[in-house]
């Protein structure tokens, strides 16, 4: 991949307000490195989460996905508070020993890439790296996209505006060093568990 360190130029060079100073403090009001303090999402009698939640909430601990001391829990936004560049009304939060170490956001892909990037630059300042990737849509057409990375004190942020085979979904990863290490270890474990022919 080719790194393009100055593509955005001076337009993106400054932090807005307290965006940089706040970069490690919270994500959507969630405190990095702290336990979840959100109310549990409303649960229906049918054994499912209510389709629309009245306030920001987190799914039950018992419903979380687990990998050792790591658990992933979905956080739901009320409709009025959901950014219009989200793919849906929820994000995934990752906890290690009960503390928030990862936040993953699916974006609505190519159509919202500028809005998502604007929000990230406002929060974290100019990207540390901008790199080019070749992607392919469902029809087989190949195209170039730019991906973005921020390396901050105690925090890594990555924005992939589209997936390699779809224009409709992108991803933002916001991780502490501990959270990133845990994710990489989990991915490595999946490869090791693949069965041979």
Automatic annotation (TrEMBL):
<protein>
    <submittedName>
        <fullName>Uncharacterized protein</fullName>
    </submittedName>
</protein>
């Amino acid at each position: 991949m080719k790194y393009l360190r100055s593509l955005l130029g001076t337009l993106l060079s400054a932090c807005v307000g307290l965006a940089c100073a706040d970069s490690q403090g919270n994500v959507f009001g969630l405190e990095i490195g702290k336990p979840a303090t959100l109310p549990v999402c409303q649960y229906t009698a049918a054994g499912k989460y209510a389709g629309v939640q009245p306030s920001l909430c987190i799914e039950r601990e018992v419903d979380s996905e687990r990998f050792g001391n790591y658990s992933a829990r979905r956080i739901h936004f009320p409709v009025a508070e959901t950014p219009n560049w989200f793919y849906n009304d929820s994000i995934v939060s990752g906890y290690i020993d009960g503390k928030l170490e990862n936040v993953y956001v699916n974006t609505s892909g190519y159509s919202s890439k500028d809005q998502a990037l604007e929000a990230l630059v406002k929060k974290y300042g100019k990207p540390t790296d901008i790199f080019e990737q070749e992607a392919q849509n469902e029809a087989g057409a190949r195209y170039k996209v730019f991906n973005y990375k921020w390396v901050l004190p105690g925090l890594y942020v990555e924005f992939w505006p589209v997936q390699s085979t779809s224009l409709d979904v992108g991803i933002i990863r916001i991780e502490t060093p501990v959270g990133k290490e845990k994710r990489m270890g989990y991915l490595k474990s999946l490869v090791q568990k693949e069965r041979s022919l």
